[in-house]
TrEMBL record:
Any Pfam family: NB-ARC
GO terms for biological process, alphabetical: defense response to bacterium; innate immune response-activating signaling pathway; plant-type hypersensitive response
Gene3D superfamilies assigned: Helical domain of apoptotic protease-activating factors, P-loop containing nucleotide triphosphate hydrolases, Ribonuclease Inhibitor
InterPro entries: AAA+_ATPase, Apaf_helical, Leu-rich_rpt, Leu-rich_rpt_typical-subtyp, LRR_dom_sf, LRR_R13L4/SHOC2-like, NB-ARC, P-loop_NTPase
Single GO MF annotation: ADP binding
PANTHER family xrefs: NB-ARC DOMAIN-CONTAINING PROTEIN, NB-ARC DOMAIN-CONTAINING PROTEIN-RELATED
PROSITE patterns: LRR
Family named by the database record: Belongs to the disease resistance NB-LRR family.
Name of protein: AAA+ ATPase domain-containing protein
Nucleotidyltransferase listed as a keyword: no
Coiled-coil portions: 64-119
Length: 1065
């Protein structure tokens, strides 16, 4: 090998470069194929080495075949993993994030290989050649080119496209090739298109061995050896040349061949082959962790990670559109087909995938006002700038300003009319504000705003300018039967062929409508007699009964299902409870203990009890029955939600209930329900003067008209809560002489008319959260009044004898009146009612003893405040504690709090369910002495700034909820387990605003029942108190700040992968 400039490389340098090449072989996806180097003694050159370079020949066709073979292996492995996941999913498991990522990479590679094949098929047939044109990469630098041709017996090495050539590369070339002039030029070279001739080889002729498919280059002198070693050192790659075009480099008379499509394909093949090998090597490690167990479902239609039967394909389709850039998607279909369930699945998906900064859920419902939607969005965002006095454009501007720099996904459930998305703060390409944003920042990517809505109308999808419309259809027969079985008792279905046959026929009668299938299946669950199943099938097929109902065909199917379920309820009381739920607005989340059960009590459905505790227990039993039948469902309230508090009625079930009580011909009931539809005035008199029950709650009614006496002679229940009423007309009482139930809570009423005393049939009166400050003397004439609710009404006076002389009074709630005026004490001491009075009250701690001695009074709900002694001891008697359900201790001054039983007996607190410590700022320790909270369910501790720990909670065997906030000195929750049970049985744990908290406990605790965990503003809490074993329990959700979650310490990253699907911020 002879240099054109006469320079020769130092053989010692050649050996050094060769040694370096062997010690540090080329790496990376762009590195060439490994090249074997044989060392031999050079004849006549003592102590020096001979270098034989064996370079594999690469042609596109052979390379593609090799790649296809590797891809076939990879696809086989992919199919095996998918089969494993499929089997695991049938057992209620899901794949990990690592597996999902691997599958996505394989899919992407498969598409890229298909593109390479298409390019190759479009090429001309290869022409045989004896030499090789190589495209190669210098690792860490840019592209370079080696051109070799056996025909003119010359070799050239050229470097093109180098934007910069580092000193190390120039120095190495100078050492290897003895080219000081070129080395200097390389150091200063800056043009990306300039070509540099590095060396010319005149005598190293390659020999092609067709059997092994390689060229052999044998160096005949040390400078040839140095050149070949330098070529390998800088990742020069040799491959077959099929190009025929040539370029003449002016002045140098050197032939340089141009790069061709062939070489481009060879490069791509080599790179993709490396990627396929890498994916194949990773696949082995995926097998042991291919799946993770999910918790067992605890409720019928819980939001699991995989959508319910028949919904999954729709969810995937919608997610594909969103990920593909579609910004407005309409989902439509008949009522009860699963649109809301589908939307919930989409919400859960994007809560765990960070495509959007905010995922907002709001329910529109029929007759919903735009202003209400705006306020609901603001509430979900915890945005306090929107005011009730703001008009719609103002609210829209405030929402827009808050959302404009955020990527947002708005999920609108159940819309019935066109909505201006711009007024909901969603500025995208379809809105004027969105177009202005695009014009102002064409070069800067604008935050994305996407909207997915559900509706029953395809036409509305068009009016909303949906870019994609997805129709949700009823289930096919196989899916319908699967859903039916999932919601019934499969042991019963398999126990009798006749029952199984009837069940399949019942499923067919539901016409594939998911809500109907679930309703019927739940109604029949537990029915073990073939005769009962046969009768149910006869009822649902009774054409005579359904032809008298003037309903469209799709509503008939649902009404049949509802009627069957309704008739299957065990008694009339439960049926009446169900119908009462329709008095609330559509999609309203009803508080069980503040709204629903009190309504059942007031309506007389629950009436046989001694103390109010028994009535609430009966109400909870009825609720469980209705939820088990899927006629009521658990709420999905966000943020501070504890699921035991609220329920809701599916809008279709509500429609069916209202049909039954108001609209069907021949119906004996006459109800009018106009709740939550934005009314400013009551309906015309003729629309409801024959009604038995009337609900106008949650409207904007400002005043009531004057009516003549006995205008509403049949009316027994009137609900006006949550309106803007300021006065009650005197004629109201005379116009409704048989009224037994009146709810005026959450209105702006300041006083009651004296005529209120003429409502002699009144049994239930709710005046909570009004501005009333006193009761008229005539109030004492309400001789049948049983239930009087006056929560958060700050009475200044109570006329003598007004309360104490109400003979039928059984429940009086004056909680949140603090302090109660002295007249209340007088009335309670003199109370002469026929029944024991269940009392809710707020007092000073100094009055506790007075409460202990009240005759014929049972305390049900108690708030105490104003403890002043440092070692305050609270004495509890049986009279005070035995029926107490809720206890709040607030504004205590002192660092210790001891709760003692009376000297003569041990206090039981057998009914206590809720305990609240609020704003006990100096409290460091609290303990119980002879007191057991064996049935305590919920514990709230707030603003106890110096409280160190709550180790004593382990002594509460039935505790469900532990909510601790603003305890600034608390470093750990449980500091001493001792002999306590290490199984911490809570269902929900909430920890907020505790900057020193760094752990739950220093000893292991078992969270066998934990479903929800919320952590906010606890930056030092860097480790969860459980690992992946929690998935074997009931975990549904972990809520917290995204930064907190990302910075948690994990014993194993696979644990984070397993728990991440349960996290939301």
């Amino acid at each position: 090998m002879t240099d054109t400039d006469g320079g020769a490389a130092d053989p010692e340098s050649a050996q050094a470069v060769e040694a370096k090449m062997v010690a540090n072989p080329p790496t990376g996806t762009d590195a060439p194929l490994a090249v074997p180097v044989e060392q031999q003694k050079w004849p006549g050159w003592p102590e020096d080495n001979v270098f034989r370079l064996i370079v594999p020949v690469t042609r596109p066709k052979s390379g593609i075949k090799k790649l296809e073979k590797e891809m076939a292996r990879l696809k086989g492995k992919r199919d095996d993993i998918k089969n494993q996941i499929g089997e695991a999913e049938r057992e209620g498991k899901i794949s990990t994030n690592e597996v999902d990522q691997w599958l996505r990479e394989v899919e992407e590679l498969e598409g890229q290989v298909a593109d390479i094949n298409q390019d190759f098929q479009s090429m001309k047939p290869e022409e045989p050649s004896a030499a090789t044109l190589v495209s190669f990469a210098v690792s860490g630098y840019n592209r370079a080119l080696v051109c070799c041709s056996a025909l003119p017996l010359c070799r050239s090495v050229c470097c093109s496209g180098l934007q910069t050539c580092p000193t190390t590369l120039a120095a190495a070339l100078q050492t290897c090739l003895g080219l000081p002039l070129w080395s200097a030029a390389l150091q200063t070279q800056s043009s990306a298109l300039q070509t540099w001739i590095l060396a010319l080889c005149h005598s190293a002729i390659p020999e092609l061995d067709e059997k092994i498919g390689s060229f052999t280059y044998e160096a005949e002198s040390p400078d040839e050896a140095a050149f070949l070693v330098a070529a390998i050192e800088f990742s020069f790659e040799f491959c077959a040349d099929s190009t025929s075009s040539q370029t003449q480099l002016a002045g140098d008379q050197i032939l340089i061949r141009e790069s061709s499509n062939c070489c481009s394909i060879i490069r791509k093949v080599a790179k993709k082959l490396g990627e396929a090998n890498e994916l194949m090597s990773r696949a082995g490690a995926l097998d042991p962790i291919a799946t993770v167990a999910l918790p067992e479902p605890t409720v019928m239609l819980s939001m699991s990670h995989r959508p319910p039967v028949g919904i999954e394909s729709y969810v995937k389709e919608t997610v594909g559109y969103i990920d593909g850039g579609k910004d407005i998607i309409g989902i439509y279909g008949m009522g009860g087909v699963g649109k809301t369930t589908m939307l919930k699945s989409i919400q859960r998906y994007y809560s765990n995938h960070r495509l959007f900064d905010l995922v907002i859920w709001v329910v529109a419902s029929k007759d919903c006002q735009l202003k209400k939607l705006q306020m609901d969005i603001a509430k979900s965002l915890e945005l306090n700038t929107l005011q009730k006095s703001d008009d719609e454009p103002t609210c829209g501007d405030k929402l827009f300003k808050y959302l404009k720099n955020r990527n947002c996904l708005l999920l609108l459930d159940d819309i019935w009319e066109h909505l201006d998305l711009q007024l909901l703060g969603m500025a995208h390409s379809a809105t004027k504000q969105g177009q202005q944003q695009q014009q102002q920042g064409q070069q800067q990517q604008q935050p994305r705003k996407a909207v997915v809505f559900t509706t029953r109308s395809e036409t509305l999808c068009g009016r909303m300018k949906a870019e994609k419309k997805i129709k949700v259809k009823c289930l096919d027969p196989n899916q319908a039967w699967q859903l039916f079985k999932e919601n019934s008792d499969e042991d019963v279905l398999s126990s009798d062929r006749g029952i199984n046959s009837c069940a399949q026929d019942l499923a067919k009668e539901c016409a594939g409508l998911p809500l109907a299938l679930i309703t019927v299946a739940r109604a029949m669950s537990g029915k073990k007699s073939w005769e009962v199943w046969k009768e149910a099938l006869h009822q649902i097929r009774d054409e005579h009964e359904w032809t008298t109902v003037c309903l469209p065909e799709d509503s008939i199917v649902m009404y049949k299902a509802f009627k069957l379920s309704y008739d299957s309820l065990e008694n009339d009381s439960i049926k009446e409870c169900l119908l009462c739920c329709a008095l609330w607005p559509e999609d309203y989340e009803i508080h069980k203990f503040k709204e629903l059960i009190p309504c059942w009590i007031g309506c007389g459905i629950i009436c046989e009890f001694n103390v109010i505790n028994e009535a609430f227990a009966k109400g909870c039993s009825y609720l469980e029955t209705l939820m088990a039948a899927s006629l009521l469902e658990r709420s999905s309230r966000p943020h501070n939600y504890y699921e035991a508090d609220h329920v809701k009625m599916h809008d279709i079930i509500r429609d069916m209930a209202l049909l039954m009580v108001s609209e069907l011909k021949g119906n004996e009931r006459k109800w009018i329900v106009k709740a939550g539809i934005g009314l400013h005035n009551l309906p015309r008199q003729e629309e409801w003067q024959e009604a038995e029950r009337a609900s106008f709650m949650k409207n904007r009614i400002l005043s009531l008209p004057e009516y003549k006496a006995s205008t509403f002679s049949e009316l027994s229940i009137l609900i006006l809560q949550y309106n803007h009423l300021t006065t009650i007309p005197p004629s109201l009482s005379a116009s409704m002489p048989h009224l037994t139930y009146l709810d005026l809570s959450n209105c702006d009423i300041k006083e009651l008319p004296t005529e209120i005393g003429s409502l002699t049939e009144l049994q239930y009166l709710n005046l909570s959260y009004t501005d009333i400050r006193s009761l008229p003397l005539e109030f004492g004439c309400l001789g049948k009044l049983k239930y009087l609710l006056l929560r958060d009404t700050y009475f200044k006076t109570v006329p003598n004898g007004v309360i104490s002389n109400l003979p039928m009074l059984k429940w009086l709630d004056i909680t949140q009146q603090f302090p109660v005026c002295e007249q209340w004490w007088d009335e309670l001491v003199r109370f002469k009612g026929r029944h024991q009075l269940s009392l809710g009250i707020a007092i000073y701690a100094a009055n506790l003893e007075s409460l202990n001695v009240l005759p014929n009074v049972s305390v049900w709900n108690l708030t105490m405040s104003g403890l002043s002694s440092e070692f305050q001891m609270l004495q509890w008697s049986h009279r005070l504690s035995d029926n107490l359900e809720c206890l709040t201790i607030a504004n205590v001054r002192g660092d210790k709090l001891m709760m003692n039983a009376s000297v003569d007996c041990e206090s039981s607190f057998r009914c206590l369910k809720t305990l609240i410590f609020d704003r006990i700022e100096e409290l460091e320790k609290s303990w119980l002495n002879g007191i057991g909270f064996d049935n305590l369910r919920d514990l709230y501790i707030n603003c106890c700034y110096k409280l160190k720990n709550v180790s004593w909670v382990l002594q509460l065997p039935c505790l469900n909820l532990l909510d601790i906030s603003d305890c600034w000195e608390m470093e750990e929750l449980i500091s001493n387990i001792e002999n306590s049970n290490s199984n911490f049985g809570i269902k929900m744990l909430t920890l907020c605003h505790m900057k020193k908290l760094h752990r739950i406990a220093h000893q292991p605790l078992c969270f066998s029942y934990l479903e929800y965990m919320r952590v906010h503003d606890c930056p030092r809490l860097q480790k969860l108190p459980f690992g992946v074993e929690i998935l074997k329990s009931r975990l549904k959700e972990i809520e917290g700040d995204r930064t907190w979650w990302d910075n948690l310490d994990w014993d194993d990253e696979s644990t984070k992968d397993s728990l991440t699907p349960y996290f939301r911020d």
